[in-house]
Amino acid sequence: MNIFRRIAGRLRPRHVTPAAELHFDDPAVARDPMPHYERLRAGGAVQFLPRHEAWFVLSHAGLRHAFAHPELLSNSPYEAIDAVLLGADPPQHTVARAAVMPLFGAEVLDRVAASSEARAAELLQGELDAVRDFAVPLSELAAAELLGLDDDTLAAVRDAQQQSQDIAQLSAALDRIAERASVFARLREGGMSDAQSRSLIRLLWLASTVTTERVIAHGINLLAAPELRAAVMNDSRLLAPFVDEVLRLHPPELVVRRRANEAVAIDGVTIPAGALVHLSIVAANRDPAVFPDPSTLRLDRPAARHLAFGFGIHHCVGAGLARRVITASLRALLAHAPAYALASAPEIGWCSMTAHPIARLPIRTTP
Question: Could you give the domains of the chain?
Answer without folding.
Answer: 19-364 (1.10.630.10)
